[in-house]
Amino acid sequence: MTTTTASVDTLRFATAGSVDDGKSTLVGRLLHDSKSVLTDQLEAVERASRNRGQDAPDLALLTDGLRAEREQGITIDVAYRYFATTSRRFILADTPGHVQYTRNMVTGASTAELTVILVDARNGVVEQTRRHAVIAALLRVPHVVLAVNKMDLVDYRESVFAGIAEEFGTFANRLGIPGIASVPVSALAGDNVVESSARMDWYGGPTLLEHLQAVPVGSDAAAPDTRFPVQYVIRPRTAEHPDYRGYAGRLASGALRVGDRVTVLPAGLTTTVVGLDLLGEPVEEAWAPQSLTVSLADDIDVSRGDLIVSGAVPEPVRDIEATVTHLDERPLRVGDHVLLKHTTRTVRAIVKDVPYLLDVSTLGRRERPEALRANEIGHLVLRTAEPLALDSYAANRSTGSFLLIDPADGTTRTAGMVGEAFPPTAKEPLRGVLT
Known about the structure:
Number of strands: 22
Shape: globular
Distance between the termini: 55 Å
Structural class: alpha+beta
Number of helices: 7
Strand order of the largest sheet: 2-3-1-4-5-6
Strand content: 25-35%
């Protein structure tokens, strides 16, 4: 494993692609060629490959950890991998390609700052490619990489790569995705994954790993507005700390400093930060995504689920419009009662309306659907029993997102993003109506 230093930063990224596009092999190649595979792991993969009659190690086995995945040669669950180079640490979410596991991509990409969308050079852009691009746009993933794989099977032709990159770029532009980096690769042969390929000398850009190392890092953590969801109230009531009251949680965005004027939502009470404890030590300042304990000047009623904010103060609301991806096998219909979990706060809610579904192939809308079904993307109107302090998802991915949960069995039903479905740069065809 490559040694890291204390000064390196961390990039969270997700991979997505259609079935048999070679995504697990790409991830395996990335781990193997960056020297991020332990010796015993590689030996286990070599043994498993020999048992399957393969002459060379099947690098896909480095990520397909479930028995069913290895037997079928597919990815089913989100597989998280951690690796590092001398310049950056990486948290990789390898997500499934099957349509029925699209919900898993939502899980993997929801916290990602970059998504690698894989395309088979022989097949080009297919419906699942467009679906993954739509999800990346919905989740406001800041960076998207198109990896055109299996270039060895099309004789490394530049024209094949250029045509796919142009088609995908046109579609991504309609979605408002800000910038696409396209890289031609062969995961099986190792071309342009970690090392540059002599067989594609017409390509002058970075390898996939070089791009991952160079892309800027930083999203909600650098947002100017501070959001601190209270997770736990600390009241020791000991002889040493008879009156201590601290509010523990993780900074979702922005920074907190001793002396800051803050507002506690949804009550709307204003007070001052008088103390910050980080890892048991007092500090003058803390930044997202650090976990800390906050002390306030006034003895006010603050409990789990409240939001301590500075900067722009969101108005607590009970009527919420959001774009959602439905995750549950059971359809979601108007009138359904759910629990809405927003940061550390959970409230009762009811589905008031499902105005439309989004067709990922045409980017048109299907008005007034009967229900939302598994893996479908649509728009919801919700009414909550208690007010919630929400940001738009475009402004803050942490405090602009929520989950809908079945109150009977605790099943996660739907993932929601407050506000408009796509960035304002998305093109007019998104507003088209399907018949």
